[in-house]
């Protein structure tokens, strides 16, 4: 299913930040105001085709009714297979004294959180991100925005079974670490050196019991305040940078 960006300013921002766009759809009766002219100018610069269509077509495609006479259709994201991530990780480990990181997301549902996690994963040099192909966020325009474009520079794979992927990573020499607030060990007192697969749970439920059973160990973050936990994207960033710190 195509992913559409609706509205003048969101389309301008998508074109400005180089979100991969297949085409721009322009209502046949839209007023050529300065924002529309900016859309046309940026689309031309990016070599994105502009199609003039009946406004009724935009009404049909619109999910929020906020298209303002212009929408952009994004290109499908180029997912890789698990083998590509494994090979990337092994190559990194060979160059970096045996260290590599793969991030596994257990049914995270917010595309913005996916993007924020991808931004941190790319920053620490992770080999890739593993997400389920059902009941989980996939890469959308919101992901590009929240990742500040980093999603274009990191491998992402969709898999049918996380537990099977975890078993494969174990056979490749990874230690699989789950982030859980119920863990006994604090992250920076645990050994996160070497090839680590970090499992982050969903926004509401955390790491599922089935996935948790397949992990080698679990770690948590210490908390001094009254709020029960960090947002999953924030927590992911802390864990990933602790992994990086230990490698150095």
UniProtKB/TrEMBL annotation:
Gene3D superfamilies: 3.30.1330.30, 3.40.1280.10. SUPFAM superfamilies: alpha/beta knot (SSF75217), L30e-like (SSF55315). InterPro entries: Alpha/beta_knot_MTases (IPR029028), Ribosomal_eL30-like_sf (IPR029064), rRNA_MeTrfase_TrmH (IPR004441), SpoU_MeTrfase (IPR001537), SpoU_subst-bd (IPR013123), tRNA_m1G_MTases_N (IPR029026). GO terms for cellular component: cytosol. The keyword Methyltransferase applies. Residues 4-80 form the RNA 2-O ribose methyltransferase substrate binding domain. It holds the Pfam family SpoU_methylase. The keyword Membrane does not apply. This is 23S rRNA (Guanosine(2251)-2'-O)-methyltransferase RlmB. It comes from Ellagibacter isourolithinifaciens. The lineage of its organism: Bacteria, Bacillati, Actinomycetota, Coriobacteriia, Eggerthellales.
